[in-house]
Every structure is written in C-alpha cells, then in structure tokens.
Amino acid sequence: MNKLAMRRAWFQVHKWIGLILAILIIPLSLSGAALVWHDALDRIVDPTRYAVSGTTVLGPDVYVAAAMSRLKHGERIAQLTMPEDGGPVVVAAAAAGVAPKRPGPPQRTMVYLDPPTARVLEVSASNGGSCGSSTCCTAASSCPAWGVRSSAGSAWR
C-alpha cells in the first residue's frame, strides 16, 4: 500500500468516526443548550405564561388562594416564587403523601399568576413546557441508574 492509498484510507476512517460521533453529540449539545437558556426559551415557546398586566405585587396569601382554586384535591403548595424581572408569580404544588411513580424529583403542578390581579395565566406540569424533553434527554446521558457514567461536571466534584 503506497502513501497516497494509506492517506485516503485514514481519511475515510477519520470521516466516518467523526460523523458517527457527531450524530451522538449534537442532540446532547442542543438539549444542554435548551437547559442553559431555559427562561428565554420558555418566554418564546409559552408566551401566555408571561402575559402579565403589570408589576404591582400583592400579598402572598392572595396568590396562594388563587393557586389553591386551580389545584387538584390532595395537592399542597410547596413553593411560591415572586417575580424579579416583570414575570409572573409561580406557585409549585405537589401531591401530599404520594410516592413518586418514577425516579427523580416529584411531579409538581406549576400555576402561573398575574402579579397585579392574581389571575391564573396557566397551569402546567413541572416537566412540561419548552425544556421538559431536553431535561430527560440530558439527564439520561448522565444517569448512573441507566448504566451511563456521569462526565458532565466531573472536574468540579
């Protein structure tokens, strides 16, 4: 085998290894980018959650009462997040005393409220929205339970 033939063979090997790795790495990179820019993507994909009528903030008890009216029986409020950047008030609720059906954090119901009026803008599951599937994709790539060794962030551990 002459030098030119050897060079062409290595070029083919290099090309196919690169293409195969690109097929594996590109989806992981895109889902990771979606997680990094979650808030900006969420505003673009779900604009109804951010259709607030002003920045005036009411008392927490008003938001709790508004959220409770939209929760299912047995769900309890776990978190109330007040807006920092002109966004909605977000109330997170979870079913009390129910064992999770899947590994990981418990499923939560998110209630988005308009700050000045406490009007419900949207009710959704915590794994819904613009980043629900990307979270699953990225988490699957580094979950020890699925036999994949975590490499992301290993330098900081």
Describe the structure.
- It is elongated and about 80 Å long.
- Helix content is 38%, strand content 16%.
- The protein is α+β, with helices and mostly antiparallel strands.
- The protein has helices spanning 3-36, 38-45, 60-68, 132-140; strands spanning 75-81, 89-95, 109-113, 120-125.
- Residues 133-157 have low confidence and may be disordered.
- The protein has a 4-stranded antiparallel β-sheet with strand order 1-2-3-4, with helices on one face.
* Intertermini distance: 48 Å
What is the count of DSSP helices, taking H or I runs of 4+ residues? Answer: 4
Task: Provide the helix percentage.
Answer: 25-40%
Shape: elongated
What is the typical, i.e. mean, pLDDT? 81
Low-pLDDT residue intervals, each spanning 5 or more residues: 133-157
Q: Please outline the major beta sheet.
A: 4 strands, antiparallel
Tally of strands? 4
Radius of gyration: 23 Å
Structural category: alpha+beta
Which sequence of strands runs across the widest sheet? Answer: 1-2-3-4
Helix-strand topology string: HHHEEEEH
Strand content: 15-25%
Pick out its properties.
157 residues, alpha+beta, 4-stranded antiparallel sheet, elongated
